[in-house]
Amino acid sequence: MDKPRILIVDDDAALSRLVGLSLEKTRLYQVRVENRSRQALACAREFQPHLVLLDVDMPGMDGGAVAAQLRADTSLRDLHIIFFTSLISQKEAGQNLISRGGDLFLPKPIDTAALVHSIEIVLSQTPTVA
Length: 130
Description:
Layout: E1 5-9, H1 13-25, E2 30-34, H2 40-47, E3 51-55, H3 63-72, E4 80-85, H4 90-93, H5 96-99, E5 104-107, H6 112-123
Parallel strand pairs: 1-2, 1-3, 3-4, 4-5
């Protein structure tokens, strides 16, 4: 059985690489990292991830705009999106991020075990289709 594909989209190259390596070390996922928000859609089309771990605050396009592009692409309709950020709390985010196409919101930083647990929960659910 193929491992679920996880695309990490975050402008913080060091953090996204660390998260990517942490997920790869679990041997549960295939992981790809994209640090340019404007390239996220093209990367997702090529990689066909099951889940995108998407930073909220990025230059060029914010996470909500990237999520909207991903949701509008019919080839990515079964994609799960987890938003993550260090800028706002889950309470502050409220339903805003979920209403923008995300399945879940996670604060940064997050330890690998908690992230894997959240990914597994989201992957077990029926995908959100906008």
